[in-house]
Amino acid sequence: MNKLEGIGVSPGIVTGEIFLLRNVISSIPSYLIEKSQLPGEIERFKRALIKTGNEIKEIQGKVKGEFRKEARIFDVHLLILKDKRMIREVIQRLREKRENVESAFAFVAQRFITAFSQIDADYLRERRFDIEDVSKRVLRNLLGVQCENLSQLKEKAVVIAHNLSPSETAGMSRDKVVAFATDIGGRTSHTAIMARALEIPAVVGLKDITSRVQNGDFIIIDGSMGSVIISPDEETLERYKKQQEDLLVVRRELSTLKDLPCQTKDGRRIKLRSNIELPEEIMHTPSYGAEGIGLYRTEFFYLNRQDLPGEEEQYISYKTAAEKTKPYPVIIRTLDIGGDKFASSFQVPTELNPFLGWRAIRFCLARTDIFKTQLRAILRASPFGNLKIMYPMISGVEELRKANLILEEAKAELETEKKDFDSNLEVGVMIETPSAAMTADILAREADFFSIGTNDLIQYSIAVDRINEKIAYLYEPAHPAILRLIEKIVEAAHKEKIWVEMCGEMAAEPSFALLLLGLEIDALSMSPFAIPEIKKIIRQVTFREAKEFAKKTFSFETTKEVTDYSRTFYREKGLLNE
Amino acid sequence: MKITEEFTIGNELGFHARPAALFVKTANSFQSEILVKKGKEEVDGKSIINLLTLAAAKGEKITVTAEGKDSAKAIKNLKKILVDTFKK
Fold first, then answer.
1. Which residues are CB-neighbours of A223 under 8 A, at least 6 positions away?
2. In whole angstroms, what separates CA A154 from the centre of its chain?
3. A22-50, pLDDT tens digit by residue?
4. Are A181 and A204 in contact (CB under 8 A)?
5. Nearest to B13 among A119, A307, A310 (CB)
6. How many folded domains does chain B comprise?
7. Where are the beta strands (DSSP E) in chain B?
């Protein structure tokens, strides 16, 4: 038994047999050839190029639906195969060095990869992965190594690979792949995005898992905790299987709550909405009983691509979201790029303090061309449902005014062009900086609603980077300072008769549901999977109880007192799902 | 016949993968030799690897030269790609 820790990028627990996708060529044979062998080597090279070209064309033909956009890169792959300079250099090296074609080709390909790695522009530097992808295919064909392919899977399996590229997942048989685990990657890598779209568990960044497993080994993938267990013993396997079953039972039980209203025993309503990262996720939000989308992230448009998304492309996505979700609202957060989010399309300079740097609304107000394109797309989609806009990282009312000015410009343009939009579209402010929280009374006069982004609000208020292991313990949503800020924000909003939602991770945490209800927050937005459990708690209590609970919480001086009190209260009330 | 024309890269992302792919495909449909020059560096415009490693960024000038029987038509078509894709 062997447990590895990585990054969980798609939740859930799965056990199964391993399919090891060997897409890294371990060693390339190298030997000298006779002059008479030259024509034979050149012929082998030509055949490998043709075969590779046919493979890529086949994959390209298989790509369907939402993955088609990524498939355009295969055009570039085909051109690399036909590249005159590449072919000329390989043949030249064959002639001069009398090397076998595998090592000549590998040498030339590596030189191109190195050349690309030295380009300053991110989006061009990333093309090295395309050269890598293509050259791996050519080498496999030269070596006569069977090209392993996920479309050949006969049995259900957990796919383990060094990394997964679009060309490897493109032809995948979706009903056979039950989970992914890879050596490298992060939350925005192709593997992660793919796993979330398919709703299968995935763990990435496991460093060397491919060298630790064999085809057919048994494995447990825990996408929620970000760990995997290779060849688990009976006891561990039983434990995880039970956990997996429990999860299913709880999900089933909670799904019976789906159509029941989210209200307390004495009739107080609180709206539960879902956070969306990818457009495909909209399909499964209604099944968890969400009353709309409280946070529609738009970063996905900008990731894993080389160009900027156009107005039309965004318009179609927003329109679909509006139509699928109406009459419930879809709250679109304008581009929140920078900080921890990586975008290949922008040449954002490396910053010493990215979380305090050029990101979100600051970026948009500097790049009004990109910002206005997005606003126009949202506006044009607004007549098709119930869309709302919110600006991230607002630090003061000037930024709100500036952003609104650009929104007005976009509206005026659309009017001139005689394009339809909803002129009453609500515009909200995300409260995620201490300065916005402290000036909530001022912001409330000019905003239609607030959305509290607790992840950033906590990080900025307590001055703690939760990624830093040494201080991560300081990151506490129950810190009295955070509770006071939330109270202040809600009060300021309600005084101006605007509503407040919370869309950070705190909103999805069952232990805070009662407190947030007591603080009179109007809506909570969270991952759709978390909705049923929060709803269950809300339906078991009264609003009066929640208010008293909140009042009592505010009398404590430390985080520990707050959490202790909460735990005891929940246990006494039987509110925990244990 | 040899024709040379200068262009300024108008796209935010410079001469990136998609327009480069289109450019190379088009260049290869002509007999003429196509050369692309940025600063002192001049590369074969029929090679995607060359064109991408040239890394022409927004605002930079590139010179496209076509030499051969169909050079006039080649320049006309390549110009269309450079102007069209970079307008957006």
1. A8, A9, A10, A11, A12, A13, A14, A179, A195, A200, A201, A202, A203
2. 29
3. 776 667 888 999 989 999 999 999 999 99
4. yes
5. A307
6. 1
7. 2-8, 33-38, 41-44, 61-67
The catalytic position among A77, A162, A190, A479 is: A190
Annotated domain spans of chain A: 2-23+148-248, 35-143, 266-573
Query: Closest by alpha carbon to A241, among A9, A3, A16?
Result: A16
To the nearest whole number, what is the mean pLDDT of chain A? 87
CA distance A29 to A139: 11
How far are the Cα atoms of A476, A517, A542, B65 from residue A548, in angstroms, in the given order? 22, 11, 10, 79
Half-sphere exposure in the Cβ direction for A262 (13 Å, CA): 25
Give the one of B12, B28, B48 whose C-beta lies nearest to A76's C-beta.
B48
* This prediction's pTM: 0.62
Over residues A430-457, the mean pLDDT reads 97
Rounded CA separation A295/A315 (Å): 17
Q: Which residue has the higher pLDDT, A403 or A59?
A: A403
For residues A291 and A191, give the distance between their C-alpha atoms in angstroms, rounded to a whole number.
Answer: 30
Q: Do A80 and B53 touch (CB under 8 A)?
A: no
Q: Which residues of B touch A (CB under 8 A)?
A: 11-14, 16-18, 20-21, 24-25, 28, 44, 46-50, 52-53, 55, 57, 88
C-alpha closest to that of B6 among B65, B47, B57: B65
Question: In B, which residues are within 8 Å of A80 by CB distance?
Answer: 48-49
Rounded to 5°, angle at Cα A429 from A427 and A431: 165
To test the contact with chain A by mutation, choose from B25, B36, B46, B47 the residue with the greatest count of A C-beta atoms within 10 A, namely B47
* Whole-number pLDDT of residue A113: 87
pLDDT digits (tens, 9 = 90+) for A237-264: 999 988 888 877 777 777 788 888 999 9
Which residues of chain B make contact with A123, given a CB cutoff of 8 A?
A: 13, 16-17
Q: Would residue A503 show up in a list of annotated catalytic residues for this protein?
A: yes
- How many C-beta neighbours within 10 Å does residue A568 have? 10
**Nearest chain B alpha carbon to A111:** B49
CATH code for the domain in which residue B54 is found: 3.30.1340.10
Residues from chain B that touch A130, judged by Cβ atoms under 8 A, are 17
- The DSSP bridge partners found for residue A401 are none
Please say whether the beta carbons of A492 and A440 come within 8 A. yes
Average pLDDT over residues A274-288: 76
Contact A119 B88 (CB under 8 A): no
Q: Distance between CA atoms of A287 and A301, rounded to whole angstroms?
A: 25
A266-573 adopts what CATH topology? TIM Barrel (3.20.20)
Domain range for B46 = 2-87
pLDDT of B85 above 80: no
Does the distance separating the beta carbons of A85 and B47 come in below 8 Å?
yes
Q: Which fold has domain A2-23+148-248?
A: Glucose Oxidase; domain 1 (3.50.30)
- For B50-59, give one letter per residue: b (16+ CB within 10 A) or e: bbbbbbbbee
Determine the Cα–Cα distance for residues A318 and A14; give it in Å rounded to an integer. Answer: 33
Cβ distance B47 to A310 less than 8 Å, yes or no, reads no
Task: Count Cα neighbours of A453 within 13 Å in the Cβ-side half-sphere.
Answer: 24
Fold for the domain defined by A35-143? Enzyme I; Chain A, domain 2 (1.10.274)
The answer to whether the Cβ–Cβ distance between A307 and B46 falls below 8 Å is no
Q: Which pLDDT tens digit goes with each residue over A119-150?
A: 777 667 777 778 888 898 899 889 887 666 77
